[in-house]
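Q: Sequence in, structure out?
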Amino acid sequence: MIERLAQHGRRTAYVVPAACWVLSMSLLAASVIMQQSDPSAARGVPGFGDAAWWGSAAVLGLQAVVLWGLRGRPRATLLAVAAGLPALMVLGEGIGVGLVAVLVATYRAALAAPGRRLAPTLLGAGALVAAGVTAAGLRSGSAESAAIVGGLLQGAAAVGLPLVLAALVGARREADAALAGTAEAQSRERDALVQVAVERERTAMARELHDIAAHHLSGIAVMTAAIGRQIDVDPDGAKQAVAQVREQSTAMLRDLRNLVVLLRDTDSPSDPSGPAGPVRMETLAGIGELVARASESGSVVSLETSGPVAELATSGAVGPLAQLAAYRVVQEALANAARHAPGARCEVRVDAQAEGRVEVAVRNGAPGPGEARVHHGPGYGLVGMRERADLTGATLRYGPTDDGGWQVALAIPVAVAPAAQTTSTGEAS
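A: Exactly. Output:
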C-alpha cells in the first residue's frame, strides 16, 4: 500500500510540469498563428522559423524542468520560474505564455510557506514578471507609460491571484482539519463515556454480588458453627439448623437469580415459573423479612419502625433505587455484625417520622459472652454502602459506639412528607 502511494506521488510530480509545458507551448503556437493571420492581434511575436521562437520554447521547457526538479523548494522554484519572463521579452505581446508556470509556482509556494516568510520571494517574483512584461511591451512598440503600467499590473496579478487562491484553499484545509480533529475528539469522548459507563456497571454488579453473598454466607457460617456443636448433643437442633442453612442457601440463589434477571435486557423481569419465585426489587418493607432471616440464623436482632414505613415503600415517595440502597445497607450491616462481633445483639431502626427523610440505622453491641471480636482484612462493604448513598443522594454515617459496638446510619431523602405516625417494635432471638 505504501509503495503504491509512493508510486502515485512520483507520477503526480510529473503531471503538473508536463501540463504547464503543453499549455504554454500551445499558447505560443496560437500566438504565432494569430500574428500571421492578423499582425495587429499579437505584435512582436516571432514566427516558427525564428531563433527567438525556438529560444522561447527552450525557456518554457526550462520552466517545466524547474517546476519538477525544485518541487521540494517552492520559493527557489518561484524565483527561478519568474526569472524566465525577462528572457521571454522577445515574444512581445505573446509573453503571457510564460506566466502559466509562474502562476503554478506561486500557488505552490503560498501553500508551502507562511505569508511573512514568502513576502520577499513574492516581491522578487513580481518584480521579475513586471520587468519582463514591461520590456516586451516596449519591444512591441507600446508607449513607455503603458508598458510600465501593464508590467506592474501583470506582475501583481501573476503573484496576487494564486496567493488569494492558495489562501482560500489553505483555509478550507484548516477547516477540514479542525472538523476532523473535532470529530476525533468527540469519538474519544464517546469512547471515554462508554468506558465510564461500563466501569460503573461493573462496580454496581460487584456491589450487588458482594452484598448478597456476604449477607447470606455470614448467616450460613454462623449456623454451621452451631451445627458443629449441636450434632452430638442436640441432633434435633442440628437438623433444624441444617434446614435453616438450606433456607439461607435457597434465599441466596433467589437473590442472585433476581440480580441476573434484572441485568438482562428483557421486558418481563418477573418470571414466577422459576424455582426461586418471582423476581422483585427489595424495598423498605423487606427489611422486616431481612431481620427475620437474620434472627433465624442464630443472631439476636430486633427491629423498630416508626412512622408510615409501609406507605412510603409503596407510595413512590422514596424511589426504588433508594429503597434498594436502604435494604442493602441493613443487609451488609447485619452481615458485618455477624462476622466481626459474633453473638452481639443488633438493633435495626427504621424511622419515617422526620420530615423529608427516612432514617435507617443498624447498631450492634460488643461480642457476646465467650466470643472474641473477629478481625478481618479490609473489604468492600463500607465502600459499597458509601457508593449507594452517593448514588441516591442519601447521607451515610458509621463508626464505633461507646459500648464497643458499631453503628451504621443512612438518611434517605423523601419526595413527600410522611402523612401518618405509627410505631411498632418487634424482637426475635
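DSSP finds twelve helices and six strands in the chain.
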